[in-house]
Amino acid sequence: MTTTSEISPKLTTLANLDQQLKTSGYAILNAASVCKWSNCVQDELTPMQASWEAMPVDQYLKDGGRYRRRRHSSFTFENDALTLAPHRAHWQPLTYNALHGGMTRWFEPMPAHILALPAWQKLLTAFAKTANQLNAAFSVGAQYIEAHSFRIEAVEGGLGRPTPEGAHRDGVDLVGVFMVNRHNIKGGETRVFDARSSSGERFTLQEPWSLLLLDDAKVIHETTPIQPLATFGFRDTLVLTCRHGAFLDAQNPSKP
Question: Within a 13 Å sphere around the CA of 152, how many CA atoms are in the beta-carbon half?
Fold first, then answer.
């Protein structure tokens, strides 16, 4: 459901995607463009949405909230092959996440049947190839991808915070935010700012499987809290990050 205060994003064409990322630091694709970008059809993407139901609650929120559900898996992409990495913790330094940085956070992995879907393979492959286009040097060696499924919930009288850490960078090369579903909420406005100036854009991602791509070196980003339009609402996203050469914490051990 859309309210009158929500701003529609300025969409990028596939023909202009690489140039838009390099000049502005971000680009937004609608669902039809995402399908062409990833060589998918919409019916291939739809089965993935069920995996956002009954996700585990994020146990690491320092504000004491119970509004975020989350899963996390890691991958490598090299020589046109996507490989599932051993399950590992998510870790960020305090320089990139002042609220939750420095914490070793173990989340449950994505369901195996979702990772086996052709659409999953296609989305992550397209994402890694777009990261390669950002810098010619990225095409040599492996890309290290982390995938996070998020459900942000809001109950009557409360808020759900998609980015409790505020405006931030992720310490990677490329970030992708897929809008999977919005249900019975207002808010959740995305804000993207030039990391070197005060200029920025604000918009609300609405369409299922639309995509925001961010050059993490050029921009910082955040999403405003959500509120329910009745007693309960939620916002589902799939967030991908890609870093050339190593995961952000190269010493982070795999879980036994």
Answer: 27
| CA nearest to 30, candidates 43, 47, 46, 17 | 17
Q: Which of 79, 6, 4, 38 is nearest to 209 (CA)?
A: 38
Beta-carbon contacts of residue 30 (< 8 Å; ≥ 6 apart): 11, 207, 210
Distance between CA 241 and CA 224 in Å, rounded? 20
Pair 67, 162: CB distance under 8 Å: no
3-state secondary structure of 110: coil
H or E, element range at 183: strand 174-183
Q: Do 179 and 135 touch, CB atoms closer than 8 A?
A: no
Which two structure tokens, joined as six digits, stand for 63? Answer: 């504000």
What are the contacts of 53-57 at 24+ separation with CB within 8 A? 55/108, 55/149, 55/151, 56/107, 56/108
Q: Which residues of the chain have pLDDT under 50?
A: 1-4, 256
Asked if residues 82 and 121 have their Cβ atoms less than 8 Å apart, the reply is: yes
The residue assigned the tokens 């990028």 is 12
Token couple for 252: 């982070």
Give dist(CA 196, CA 138) in Å, integer: 23
Sheet (strand 200-203) strand order: 200-203, 190-194, 219-223
Sign of the four-CA dihedral 94, 143, 111, 109: negative
Q: How does DSSP classify residue 52?
A: G
pLDDT of residue 98: 64
Q: Which CATH class is domain 14-244?
A: mainly beta
Q: What is the DSSP letter of 88?
A: B
- The domain spans of the chain are 14-244
Q: Please give the full DSSP string across 17-31, using - where no structure is assigned.
A: HHHHHHHHSEEEE-H
Give the pLDDT confidence score for residue 3 in this predicted structure: 47
